[in-house]
Amino acid sequence: MLRSTVHLLRHGEVHNPGRVLYGRLPNFHLSELGLKMAERAADYFGDRARAGARIVYLVSSPLTRAQETARPTAQALGLDVVTDDRIVEALNRFEGLADVRGQLKDPRHWPYLVNPFRPSWGEPYSAQVRRMMAAVGDARRNALGIAGDGAEAVLVSHQLPIWVTRRSAESRALWHDPRRRECTLASVTSLEFEGDRLVGVSYAEPSADLLPGAANLPGA
């Protein structure tokens, strides 16, 4: 039975002095610290490759911050970046707002808060998992087609889609407290497969020492 691994890499820190919930808005670039995080991710995957890992397929969300995070890894591994809309950030009705906590005191927003389990303010968690896992499946099959047994792929995505995909993989409820997501900037959530069966989930933080003081607004 063929083994494969798909790594879900979250983008690095974004330059966002206005603390806007940027969601799917264009032209939100990595900060200087975010670029360092992207380099750390490239070092992480480069070290894996030098140790014998066969990382042969690289995919990114179309959003600027994800594309910029993917580039150093593409250079380190000699890979092209494939863009996949299915791993984009979650839709959110509060996209574009600054000081979201303060904005939620406005009664106009209250109808969107009635169901945190779906959630009512944005794209259903279950829909995010479906599109992410479809992309994971395609990336895994493409990697296996290139390198065979033990092939690995990297998908550069966003905190919420990665986190709910991990929760689904671990058979946990998809609803959660956003403040308790284990999916820090430029972190790596790895899904391990035997054939089509998901057999393991692991997590790493190549930029752990860069996280203190980093801006880390939940995207959704």
Automatic annotation (TrEMBL):
Where is it found, in Gene Ontology cellular component terms? cytoplasm
Q: Show the Pfam families listed in the entry.
A: His_Phos_1
Instruction: Give GO terms: molecular function aspect only.
Output: phosphatase activity
Q: Known SUPFAM superfamilies for this protein?
A: Phosphoglycerate mutase-like
Under InterPro entries, the record lists:
His_Pase_superF_clade-1 (IPR013078), His_PPase_superfam (IPR029033), PGM_Phosphatase (IPR050275)
The name this protein goes by in its record: Histidine phosphatase family protein
Q: Which organism is it from?
A: Arthrobacter mobilis
